[in-house]
Automatic annotation (TrEMBL):
Annotated family: Belongs to the ketol-acid reductoisomerase family.
A single Gene Ontology CC term: mitochondrial matrix
Protein name, UniProt field: ketol-acid reductoisomerase (NADP(+))
Stretches that traverse the bilayer: none
Subcellular localization(s) per the UniProt record: Mitochondrion
Upper classification of the organism: Eukaryota, Fungi, Fungi incertae sedis, Mucoromycota, Glomeromycotina
Signal peptide bounds: none
Pathway where it operates: Amino-acid biosynthesis; L-isoleucine biosynthesis; L-isoleucine from 2-oxobutanoate: step 2/4; Amino-acid biosynthesis; L-valine biosynthesis; L-valine from pyruvate: step 2/4
Protein EC: 1.1.1.86
All copies of domain KARI N-terminal Rossmann, residue ranges: 70-260
UniProt cross-references to SUPFAM superfamilies, sorted A to Z: 6-phosphogluconate dehydrogenase C-terminal domain-like (SSF48179), NAD(P)-binding Rossmann-fold domains (SSF51735)
Species annotation: Diversispora epigaea
EC category: oxidoreductase
Residues that coordinate or bind substrate: S331
Length: 409
């Protein structure tokens, strides 16, 4: 989600500007995005455009984008209207196995898009009860895992990584010739020496990986937006695996989808989660908070300057139009400080990221995940660690500060 996040920002900006400039300025379906470029064709773009975002659902302008000489193929929601998706999957039953964040978000979105979707869950379990609350009906579109595996022509294995390893023997007898298996993470396929997940050779296997939590997959869909996703094909027996992967990606809530491989997806995903998305940001927040507290600042002030201003003010600006736009909307004092200090932070943390990437590529991270998450009490053990974090002074201060936030009108 590092390079893909930059790509997503660039794509968002290109789509927005394209609609603003109208089709008469477009002479090519391939754009070059250079790091310091402010030009699109012959039209000069303001350095820091403040443009209301427009959902590019009616126009198709970009098939290939070029960033620093690297070409990337992308697809947008407008490439696959619902009637085309319905035609592609008219004879299919899509069985989603698992109702965690991704299983819930993807299945509900596909169901709302009028595809024939059923769930396979442990009868009577927590997810089973949650699915019923969401409107799934036992015997109609809610079944046991075994029943859903039998009925599905397309099987979505959206169980947790540890559960995929544990339940894989239950999948194999039902993955018969002509069926399709899809994942939303490359974990089980790439680390097959640890998971023992090896699909039969006579079925299509692909991946659709949303770049965000399942909760966001669902909330973006309900807001009429689409989440960025990647896709990859592992086995193409039918000759249609790529087209079906992209179409299913759109059906489950993607607005923009780009090509990758199972290995690149899982490597970048594991690094991202442990890095800037969660682990690194938690570590940076905590380090700055602790320094401010040690130098006499109050918990409220330390939290506001560390987390609140970042998440409520600056990060949303990055999300809207990118890092350069965020810089342009800060004081020159802030800009000077950021330009002076980003390199020391990069130099200090880059060796950590190198070590992290090596740990992912060597399989050490996945061994730890499978070992920890295979414990019968792993959920309780995880909750204990999370509770300790949530009760720390920094996050306690955050709970108080959030209560003081003015309500958004």
């Amino acid at each position: 989600m590092n390079s893909s996040s930059f790509l997503a920002r660039s794509s968002s900006r290109i789509s927005t500007i394209t609609l603003q400039l109208r089709a008469k300025f477009i002479t090519s379906r391939s754009f070059s995005i250079l790091s310091n470029s402010r030009f699109l064709g012959e039209v000069r773009i303001p350095k820091f455009p403040i443009i209301k975002r427009v959902q590019p659902t009616q126009f198709r302008r970009v098939q290939t984008i070029v960033i620093g000489g690297t070409k990337e193929r992308v697809h947008e929601r407008s490439d696959y209207p619902l009637d085309k998706i319905h035609e592609l999957f008219k004879n299919d039953t899509i069985s989603i196995i698992g109702y965690g964040p991704q299983g819930r978000g993807q299945s509900l979105n596909a169901k709302d898009n009028k595809l024939n979707v059923i769930l396979g869950l442990r009868e009577g379990g927590r997810s089973w009860k949650e699915a019923i609350q969401d409107g799934w009906v036992p015997g109609k579109d809610l079944f046991t895992i075994e029943e859903a595996l039998k009925k599905g022509t397309i099987v979505g294995n959206l169980l947790s990584d540890a559960a995929q390893k544990e339940l894989w023997p239950q999948f194999v007898p039902h993955l018969t010739k002509g069926k399709t298996l899809y994942f939303s993470h490359g974990f089980s396929i790439v680390y097959k020496d640890q998971t023992h997940v090896i699909p039969p050779a006579d079925i299509d296997v692909f991946m659709v990986a949303p770049k965000g939590s399942g909760k966001t997959v669902r909330s973006h869909f309900l807001e009429g937006r689409g989440i960025n996703s990647s896709y990859a094909v592992f086995q193409d027996i039918s000759g249609k695996a790529e087209e079906r992967a992209i179409a299913l990606g759109i059906a489950i809530g993607s607005g923009y989808i780009y090509e990758t491989t199972f290995q690149r997806e899982v490597f970048s995903d594991l690094v991202g989660e442990r890095g800037v998305l969660m682990g690194a940001i938690q570590g940076l927040f905590l380090a700055q908070f602790e320094v401010l507290r040690a130098r006499g600042h109050s918990p409220s002030e330390a939290f506001n300057e560390t987390v609140e201003e970042a998440t409520q003010s600056l990060y949303p600006l990055i999300g809207q139009n990118g890092m350069d736009w965020m810089y342009s909307n800060c004081s020159t004092t802030a800009q000077r400080g950021a330009l002076d200090w980003y390199k020391p932070f990069r130099d200090a943390t880059k060796p950590v990221f190198e070590k992290l990437y090596t740990s992912v590529a060597d399989g050490d991270e996945t061994r730890r995940v499978l070992e920890k998450n295979s414990s019968p009490n792993y959920r309780e053990e995880l909750d204990v660690e999370l509770k300790e974090l949530s009760e720390s002074e920094m996050w306690t201060a955050g709970k108080v500060v959030r209560k003081l936030r003015p309500e958004r009108k």
